[in-house]
Amino acid sequence: MHSAQVDAYLRRLGVEHPAWPTVDVLRELHLRHLQTVPFENLSIHLGEEIVLEEKRLLDKVVGARRGGFCYELNGAFGSLLAALGYDVALLAARVYGDGERLGIPYDHLALRVRTVDGGDWLADVGFGAHCHLPLAFGERGEQEDPGGTFRIVEAEPDAAGVRGGHDTMEAADLDVIRDGRPQYRLEVRPRVLGDFVAGVWWHSTSPVSHFTRSLVCSRVTEDGGRITLSGRRFTVTGADGSRQERELGADEEVLGVYRERFGIELGSVPTVRGTGQES
């Protein structure tokens, strides 16, 4: 990422160019990303190709002022952090679903970030409702965050009796837990962006993926709450957990919410496309 791209990305986030890649700067960048770049799956339903290449991600997130899902958001954010001097590793994860069953390999992309002054951190701006600030990667106790109480713990063996890491504690898989419920299982082996292409394809085409079955556009608000547009249902969640929902009517109203609340300009209202394989 060249300097003009870095400057444009930082303007997108409303952040000044930092002097050093410190923990405090990482925390500011992480929170501002969640507040300004929506978590959204609109490309799947608008028929837009999702390409895991740095330039294409920047064109979308920065140039077009859109959002994306985990591969796009954490992929782009990881590139920005690396350009700012952070040591960044892309990590693959499998998301816990119904009955705490693990999802597919490369189900999720998260980041391990090393700062100049504070060790390693788990950064994740692409998981929807999750931590607002980076989590200390090596901490195994509870970590309080505006998004909940988190823990990162060594994973127990999975359904196949495997816990990852070739039976060494240092390389064992990690479970990320929020408010007592496991969110995803993280592999600690670094990956490259191209490794996640199969995950993008599956989540963009499979009738089992929740991304093909529904629309979502969501971001953290400045007061610590969250706003979410799911189809025509607009939800405002307060920092205290209170919720207000309303159904939007005319297309103009829906497009207005995308534009005014999420900064996304659309020519038409997205609708769930499906996969042609629904039962």
CATH fold topology of the largest domain:
Arylamine N-acetyltransferase fold
Helix content: 25-40%
**What is the averaged pLDDT score?**
93
Number of strands: 13
Give the low-pLDDT segments.
none
Largest beta-sheet details: 8 strands, antiparallel
Coarse morphology: globular
Largest sheet: spatial strand order: 5-4-3-2-9-8-7-6
- The number of distinct helices, counting runs of at least 4 residues, comes to 8
Q: Give the topology string: H per helix, E per strand.
A: HHEHHHEEEEEEEEHHEEEEH
Structural class of the secondary elements?
A: alpha+beta
Task: Describe the 3D structure.
The chain has 279 residues and is of the alpha+beta class. It folds into 2 domains: 3-198, Arylamine N-acetyltransferase fold; 205-262, no CATH class. The chain is 28% helix and 25% strand. It has 8 helices and 13 strands. It has helices at 3-13, 23-36, 42-46, 54-63, 70-83, 197-205, 210-213, 251-262, and strands at 39-40, 87-95, 108-114, 120-123, 135-136, 143-145, 148-154, 174-178, 181-191, 217-220, 226-230, 233-237, 243-247. It has an 8-stranded antiparallel β-sheet with strand order 5-4-3-2-9-8-7-6, covered by helices on one side. A hairpin with a 2-residue loop joins β11 (226-230) and β12. It is globular, with a radius of gyration of 18 Å.
